[in-house]
Amino acid sequence: MKTNKTSPPSQIPHQNGGFQNSLGFVLACVGSAVGMGNIWLFPYRLGQYGGAAFLLPYFFFIALFGLVGLSAEFAIGRRARTGTLGSYEYCWNRIGQGKIGYLLGWIPLLGSLGIAIGYSVILGWVLRALGASLTGSLFTVEPGSFFTEISSAFGNIPCHALIVVLACTLLMTGATKGIEKVNKILMPAFFGLFVVLAVRVFFLEGSREGYRFLFIPKWEYLLQADTWVMAMGQAFFSLSITGSGMIVYGSYLGKEEDIPKASVYTAAFDTLAAMLAGLAIMPAVFAFGIEPASGPPLMFITLPQVFAKMPLGNLFAVFFFISVAFAGITSLINMFEAVCESWQTRFGMPHSAMVAVCGVMAFGIGIFIEEGNKVGSWMDFITILVVPFGALLGAFSIYYILGWKEIGQELSTGRRQPLGVWFCTLGKYIYVPLAIFVFILGILYGGIG
User: Fold this and answer.
1) How confident is the model at residue 3 (pLDDT cuts 50, 70, 90)?
2) What is the largest distance, in Å, between two alpha-carbon atoms of the chain?
3) Residues 246, 266: Cα–Cα separation, whole Å
4) CA distance 120 to 169
5) Which residue in 161, 181, 333, 371 has the most C-beta neighbors within 10 A?
């Protein structure tokens, strides 16, 4: 989409429509942000890096990244009235280098596609675990053997395919209408199911140790650099700041909406989801004397052992994997839509056709990395190198290339009072340097989010 240097595109609504209200927009953004990191990583990191003490830097980074990071991506999408490729081109057109912006935009776009490919594999495992919970077969095998089976090469093709088909079908029902309807159902259901799990876990004998692990502050950890690094990485990636996915949702947002306010709500609900995951998982793990873990082993090895020992464990396992599936599918939809909208706009193809192409690519590549180590290596490459670099490009393009005069105007649209220069200072001189640190530290640490 070509744009000139000074004037924003016409305010004619996006060809895919728009969100009907701020609630639908926020729920869609929460659906994108809430994902596996909230469930299988945050609870472990919370306990590992100082319990309640970890929350202080985490809340700080969540507030900062949510306010100036998410807001910037939403705003450039609404300003340019298109997703990744067109938005980067729009930014760089300001200095007469729109082609460079267009080429740079492919990096975060491919990051979104790369995450979607790996995510669809992992969600296939979740769907398989849900089916095994329903039949009870999840609890009749040795710990770890179920995960070994589903994460073997070409070991989960039907469930993997079903996840991709489901995500594509939901998007084909209408981009914005489908996204809004799905998230209005799945996000409240996700929170409701995790509340039920957290309440049930509270009454387990021995769960008190899990709460100690999570919430007794170890203040000395605040003096350790790793605590701040991990809190920063967890906050950055938890909010789904990728330089791509949130931009496309911003392009579907009406001019009457207050972007910074919506960003704060998104960050708050994302944090609530992470806290609920911690309350539902870690006390249960400690109640049965099982060593806490993070990542796929927590979900597919540790928790099945917990559910097997819990009264009505089958039922609560079903609740858990349904909740994870809801969180995952809403995130996957965002990743697909970021890619599909850019291709649709760039190549002038119908949205449904681009969804089909994206789905075929995701499954066609993903089928060859179904083996656990392969998908792990794939996701490490994407999340350590491609995604944070794409997010950094987005932050730099918005705050330094497009500049505060224009992005500030967009951020102030829909607000009762315009934003002050303090917002620019946070974005340009705090957020962008921290995005650089996230990229560099992720490489040095082998991943921080």
Assistant:
1) very low
2) 66
3) 11
4) 14
5) 333
